[in-house]
Structure formats: C-alpha cells, structure tokens
Amino acid sequence: MAEFLNSLGPLSFIGFVCLQAVQVIAAPIPGEVTGFIGGFLYGKSLGIVLSTIGLTSGSMAAFSISRILGRPFVERFVKKETMEKYDYLLHHKGAFLVFLLFLIPGIPKDMLCYIVGLGHLTTKEFFIISTVGRFGGTVLLTLGGDYIRHHQYERFFILLGLAIVVIFLSMVYKDKLERLFRIWHITSRRKAMRAKRDKE
C-alpha cells in the first residue's frame, strides 16, 4: 500500500486522503492500517492533517448517504445486532452522548456514522463530533507510524504499551459504559416527557 501511494508521486497526498475516506465509507481495509501508514509516509504533523481530512470526509459522506437514502439502505450492510445495539441513538438528541461513543476504542465508529445519520444530529454537530472524536486515535496511529519510520523503537513500544492498556480498559468497561449511556438516554427522555406534560 505504501508503494502504491509512493507511485502516485505528487498525487500521493490526495490518494492517501481518498484512501482514508473510502475505508470509512466502505471499510475495505482497517482504519488502523491506513492511520499507521500516514505516519510512516508523511511524518507526524502532515500525517495527522491528512488522516484527519480523510477520516472527516469519509465520516461526513457516510452520514450524508445515510441521511439521504434512509434506514432501508443502511440496514443492507450494517449488522442487525449493531443497529439494535445503538438504536437508542436515533431517538436521542444529545450530541455529547454520541461524542463519548466516538472517544471509546472498540466502538465501530464507521458504522456509527451511518446509524447517527438516521437520527437527530445536525450536519454541523456531527462534523465537530466526528473530527474531534477520532482525533486521539488518529494521533496515536500516526505517531506509531512515524516512530517506525525513524527507527525509534523504544518510543514505539512505549506508545504500543499505552495503547494496549487503554484498549484493554475500554474493552473491559465498554459494555458497562454503553449500558450507562442507555440509562442516561432513558432518564433524559423521561425528564423531557415530564417537562412536556407539565407545560401542557
């Protein structure tokens, strides 16, 4: 993949941004791979910028496709279990809750783009959430690629160790956090309904 991008010459930057966008929309390859390659080929600063542009573009495209074509289209390639698991997001107007999900490693963020597109978030809200929410992971992957590029193996293994700890903790508590988010959603919905009844 690195050889292919290098073969594009001056168009390599555009090719990488498109690759990052496409892996969100259609997921032909894991995003962890492309993020790592960004750091390996372009270094820290440029790698982060290019990855962010690509990931945000892909996220916005998936969100817009979902909003335009609707649930029947999304259900063709998003697993039924995934749709059911995050179905409560379609009835939740809280942007902060969606943002928290984007921060947790192990959450299928590419699929979330499609699912959230069926809900109440505005395009502006989703743009901010998808950009900021993915940024931490983008930085870690880009740094990893850059460290390998410059043979900074000690830094790479320290980064890898930290990433493993974060991923392990997120996997241990992911279900509990998701359950907490569901309860949060139900509670906030009940409060909204009570407030509506009081006004009436």
Question: What does this molecule look like?
Answer:
- This protein has one domain.
- Helix content is 80%, strand content 0%.
- It has 10 helices and no strands.
Low-confidence stretches: none
Decide which structural class fits the backbone: mainly alpha
Gross geometry: globular
Q: What do the pLDDT scores average to?
A: 83
Number of domains: 1
Relative strand content? under 5%
Report the radius of gyration as a whole number of Å.
Answer: 19 Å
Estimate the helix proportion, in percent: over 70%
Element-level helix/strand string: HHHHHHHHHH
The DSSP helix count reads 10
Q: Based on DSSP secondary structure assignment, what is the total number of beta strands?
A: 0
How would a textbook summarize the main sheet? none
C-alpha end-to-end distance: 61 Å
Summarize the structure.
This protein has helices at residues 2-7, 12-25, 31-42, 44-69, 71-74, 80-85, 95-103, 109-116, 123-149, 153-199.
Walk me through the topology.
Blueprint: H1 2-7, H2 12-25, H3 31-42, H4 44-69, H5 71-74, H6 80-85, H7 95-103, H8 109-116, H9 123-149, H10 153-199
Helix pairs in contact: 2-3, 2-4, 3-4, 3-9, 4-8, 4-9, 7-9, 9-10
